[in-house]
Amino acid sequence: MESRSGNYEAARALFAAGVIKCPNHVPIYQAWACLELRSENLEKARTLISEALTREKNQGSSWLVAAKIEEASGNSGLVGLILQRGLEHAPHSAKLYCALAEYEVNRGKIDVARALLEKGLEIDPFHAPLYHSLAELEARIFNIAGLAKLNKRAAEVFNSNALEPSAASMQLLGNKLRKSSERKLPTSVATLANMISVELDIEEAISDIDPDMLIERMNRPEDNILEEEQESS
To answer: Per-residue pLDDT averaged across 92-108, rounded?
Structure first.
């Protein structure tokens, strides 16, 4: 609550008291690190997320925050290494697959990114952002056959309600696709993009993360969170 109100010093005091009372509670370190990241206090953020990872390495959220800190620091080479290390310790984190795939796309490694997203779907076939990311990847290279295959695959997994897109998610996809190519997208690409909903991507998961909400989300089933956000959209 304090961080949402902009009372960062009060929030820091509460986080400090929290880690004294519960020194092994990883979500507190994660949330505090997010607060410092927002404040551009990168060294403090790095120290805090290191504390989180020292205590527990199998939470994908910690690795995502660590990667975003290095990205903000301009250490782009470390971002991929951190995400890869994260998958070694948290191999069932669908969000890490999305993040690392996006990193590889930005490096022009389309085949590597596709393999990561496919692996993520094998592990968690109900994680909607993976379908979104894969659809975006195929649209960038105008792989119409791949999009049609993905469309069929998504239709077999999700019902129509689950595929109902929010305005924000479609705007995000549209902006990224416009940046990726000057050519007009085929109708089939646009149609598929409007069928696959995304709840968050790496930017939504990290750069705009709310420290207070992170604590609430950390140990809650993701399906419940998805339902709440779809109701509020």
So the answer is: 94
Question: Are 35 and 8 spatial neighbours (Cβ–Cβ below 8 Å)?
Answer: yes
Cβ count within 10 A of residue 154: 23
Instruction: Find the distance separating the first CA and the last CA of the chain, reported in whole Å.
Output: 21
> How many angstroms separate the CA atoms of 41 and 54, rounded?
20
Q: b/e string for 79-117 if b means 16 or more Cβ within 10 A?
A: bbebbebbbebbeebbbbbbbbbbbbbeeeebeebbebb
3-state helix, strand, coil in the chain (%, to 5): 70, 0, 30
The answer to whether 154 and 163 are in contact (CB under 8 A) is yes
- The C-alpha atoms of residue 218 and residue 136 are separated, in whole angstroms, by 27
Tell the residue number behind the tokens 């310790």, with chain if given. Answer: 89
How far apart CA 204 and CA 12 sit, in angstroms, is 23
Residue whose pair of structure tokens reads 């925050």 in the numeric block: 65
Residue 9 main-chain phi, psi, to 5 deg = -65, -40
For 189, the token pair is 């690409």
Mean pLDDT confidence for 27-52: 94
Q: When comparing pLDDT for 125 and 223, which is higher? A: 125
pLDDT tier at 152, thresholds 50, 70, 90:
confident
Instruction: Name which residue leads in pLDDT, 51 or 141.
Output: 51
**What whole-number distance in Å separates Cα of residue 187 and Cα of residue 149?**
16
CA–CA distance, 214 with 182 (Å, rounded to integer): 37
